[in-house]
Amino acid sequence: MQPFATVIGPAAPLLRRDIDTDVIVRIERLTQLPRDQLGRYALEALRGPDFVLDRPAFRGAPILLAGANFGCGSSREGAVWALQAAGLRCVVAPSFGDIFFSNCFPNGMLPVALPEDAVAELARQAADGAPVTVDLRALSVVAPDGTVFAFTLDPLRREMLLEGADELGLTLRRTEEIAAWQCADAAHRPWAIPNLQGPCVWT
User: How far is CA 39 from CA 30, 66, 82, in A?
Assistant: First the structure.
């Protein structure tokens, strides 16, 4: 997973509410294509002559500004894959569908929840493609005029993105601590580990 620290670039405004995962990517695309080819089909139901991600100022934009309840609907992880394949690393919205929000972190996508008026102000300032900065270390979104919008994030999820590791990856980085705890536990509760032979040797 690609680590996430700071992303700077155009922030494409798509402030429509309740964009669900079926709109983000149609199910048949997920059954027909590998994940790295989904980008051209991201949000295809909304695409038209003036679709925001096709405008010159926002082609390849790494940030999407969205409306409330973004990513609601079904639990397809492919919705995150499609947005990533389209070049997005961060979605800023007033709120998210719970499962979409959770699916972002093990895939290296940052969902940022900001008040609706803050998202609208970012969209206003970034309307011509002016760069927005999303800083995960500082937990802030910086508008083109320098205004800072702070956000909060669960510390473990923040660590996952900064380290480029999912929950399992973070756990495996602490194998020595885990082994030490297991040894201490075995010394206090030998009856709980019947196949223990000698100090911390399992068969």
Answer: 11, 17, 5
Give the Å distances, CA to CA, from 134 to 141, 142, 191: 5, 6, 52
| Per-residue pLDDT tens over the stretch 28-81 | 999 999 999 999 999 999 998 899 999 999 999 999 999 999 999 988 999 999
CATH 3.20.19.10 correct for 6-153:
yes
Domain coordinates of the chain in residue numbers? Answer: 6-153
The per-residue pLDDT for range 7-38, each reduced to its tens digit, is: 999 999 999 999 999 999 999 999 999 999 99
Check: CB of residue 138 under 8 Å from CB of residue 4: no
Local structure of residue 109 (DSSP, 8 states): P
| Residue showing tokens 């270390």 | 137
- Is-contact 24 42, C-beta < 8 A? yes
